[in-house]
Write the C-alpha cells for this entry.
Amino acid sequence: MTRSAALPALLLTACLLGTGPAAADALPGAVQWLIDRSGDPDRIGRDIGPYPLDGSGIVALDPLTGFATKPAPAPEARFYAVLARKDGYAYAAADALVTADGMPARGESLGVVGVDTGLAAIVTRSGLEAMSLYYDSLQAQASDPYTALEPQLPLETFASFVTLPDGTRMAVSSSGYGDGGYQFFRLGDAQGQTVAFYLDFLGDRKGEWIDPPPCANL
C-alpha cells in the first residue's frame, strides 16, 4: 500500500506544542529519558492517556497497512508522545507506552516497523487480530482503512487513540518526518523490569537514533 495522497504532511506550527495536556506535568522516567537523550531542550512529553492491555502482548505497526513487529508482553500502560520543533514546524519525535515509572538502564529492539502512510501505532496482539478481520471486511465492501478511520487519525494532533467498531483501541501517532523504517524498543530498569516500549522517529538533535542503554548516544 502506498501513502495516500490525501494524507497531509503532518507539519504543524510550533505554537500547537502548547495545546492539549500540560507539557510541564511530571513525566515518567522513560519519557524524560527520551527527552534528555535527544539533547534537544525544546522537546516536550505529552500524556495521551491510559491504554489498558489484555495480556496478549503488544505490537507496533503502520495502522493502515497492518504489518507488525513480533508481540511483547506488557502490563497496563499509558501512551505518551514526545514532540519536537524544527524550522518553525512541530513533529512527533517519538511515542511510548509507559508501563512503570523507573529510569531505563537497558533495552532491546523488538523489530522494525515499516511506515508507508506517515502514521505508526502500538496495539495489543488481540487488537491486531481484530484489525485484520476489520480490514478484510472493509476490502469486501470495496472500502479501505484510511477512508474508514480518517476522522479519528491524528492528522493534526500528533497522537491519539483510534477505536475500531468492535472497541479495539490503537495508540496512533504521526511518524516524525514521514515514511520509513523505525525500530520498536523495550526499555527496562536496573532490576530488569520493563518500564516502557517506544518508537523513535527523529533521533537526537544530531540525527542519531536514540538506542536503549548501553548503546545509547553519549
Summary: The longest strand covers residues 77-86. The longest helix spans residues 125-140.
